[in-house]
Design brief:
Elements (H helix, E strand, L loop, with lengths): L31 H69 L2 H51 L3 H16 L12 H4 L8 H7 L2 H4 L4 H7 L2 E8 L5 E8 L9 E7 L13 E3 L14 E9 L9 E9 L20 H25 L3 H6 L1 H25 L1
Length: about 400
């Protein structure tokens, strides 16, 4: 008769499972209920082990997420610590300077600090009033910009023609004069408004023109209005570019916002934040910011080794529309001096383009369209050079 295995030995060497009972012939009687119970217990243990493994995997994923979040928080904390250290160093320098002063002089410097604080309070009041004044006159100019838009779109064509005919009739009542005859009038009848107004104006502004490529021009011909909305508090502005239906993107309005606390001061601008927008391109193959490039590659490994295949991918290319994706500020810890200079240059150029629209193209768009503003700029540069030359000659004499 066989002896059952001691599957769970206990103290004293006795088995937790007793010997199986036998019948009169000496054959073992199999306890089916007990075997079933053992299988169920084994299955439960296996399911528990599987659940434990899945739980450990979920825990691992959670731990990875927590770890990534902690790393991001550490980076943010590191940036904040650097800023705090800079401020602390400045405060310490001020304290060291004050500590070095004689007591009587220190009292006088403290009085100067008090006067400067009073001046700062006055400047706060000045900026608040200036912001109100800026908003007042911006509102007065708004109807003029609306009429300009109507002229560009051709909504005032009939009225302008009527005014022109009235002026001609007035001239006919005056003494006879030789009136020049305009040619190709029939061809002009089909023209509506002022086509390509903004793209032409942009082309005469060097800061903006250097961003515009030949591929951009066709799309920019659908640009029919550009506006600038200053913040009520005078600490920023939003540029908006309005496009008619075109073959390139769905987005009808492209915008870009600048937060600048010292915008109304003559100091160098402090960019607090710059926010662009996402352009929803209709066709990936007609994306103006990227071009489709096909390259041939030879497989080096695998069953296709030696075979040549064509790989197509999108590569970044020059375009004005990158303007709506502003530069990003990397972590302060990851930047060296060269990278910091490159980032500063990128932000400076980006802001110059924004100011070209805000301070020149939007207020005086027609002068940039005709090129008159460009001529005035060139004349101003010429006069400045001549004045400098005269001053230099005078010093030499």
């Amino acid at each position: 008769m066989s002896t059952p295995l001691d599957l769970n030995p206990t103290s004293g060497g006795t088995s937790a499972i007793q010997s199986a009972p036998s019948d009169e012939a000496g054959n073992d009687i199999v306890d089916l209920d007990g075997a079933t119970t053992m299988l169920e217990e084994t299955q439960i243990v296996t399911e528990d082990a599987t659940d434990q493994e899945e739980g450990e995997e979920d825990m691992q994923v959670d731990n990875d997420d927590i770890k990534n979040e902690e790393e991001e928080n550490k980076e943010d904390e590191a940036d904040e610590e650097v800023e705090v250290e800079i401020l602390q160093d400045e405060d310490e320098d001020d304290e060291d300077m004050m500590a070095m002063l004689p007591e009587k002089v220190k009292c006088r410097v403290e009085k100067l600090i008090e006067l400067n604080a009073t001046r700062d309070a006055i400047m706060v009041e000045y900026l608040a009033e200036r912001a109100v004044l800026e908003n007042k006159y911006s509102a007065l100019c708004e109807p003029l910009y609306t009429k300009r838009l109507e002229v560009i779109q051709g909504k005032m064509d009939s009225l302008i023609e009527t005014e022109k005919k009235g002026a001609i009739n007035s001239e006919l009542l005056a003494p006879p004069q030789d009136v020049p005859v305009e040619e190709d009038e029939d061809e002009d009848e089909n023209i509506v408004g002022v086509p390509q107004f903004w793209v032409c104006a942009m082309g005469h502004m060097e800061t903006v023109a250097e961003l515009v490529t030949e591929r951009d021009v066709d799309c920019l011909e659908h640009l029919y209005n550009v506006t600038c909305e200053d913040f009520p508090n005078g600490k920023g502005f939003t540029l908006k570019f309005y496009f008619a239906t075109n073959d390139y993107f769905i987005t009808p309005i492209l915008s870009k916002t600048y937060e600048i606390p010292n915008l109304l001061l003559d100091d160098e601008p402090i960019l607090k934040n710059v926010t662009g927008c996402t352009i929803q391109w209709k066709d990936p193959n007609k994306t103006l910011t990227h071009t489709l490039v096909s390259k041939k590659q030879r497989a080096k490994k695998g069953k296709h080794a030696g075979q040549i295949r064509t790989v197509t991918r999108h590569e970044r290319c020059d375009s004005f529309f990158h303007f709506f994706n502003p530069p990003r500020m990397p972590s302060l810890e990851d930047m060296d001096e060269d990278e910091a200079d490159a980032i500063e240059e990128a932000f400076d150029h980006d802001y110059d383009v924004a100011q070209a629209f805000r301070s020149h193209l939007i207020p005086s768009g027609v002068l940039w369209f005709t090129g008159e503003a460009l001529d005035e700029d060139l004349q101003a540069i010429t006069d400045e050079l001549e004045n400098n030359n005269v001053s230099t000659e005078g010093e030499e004499v």
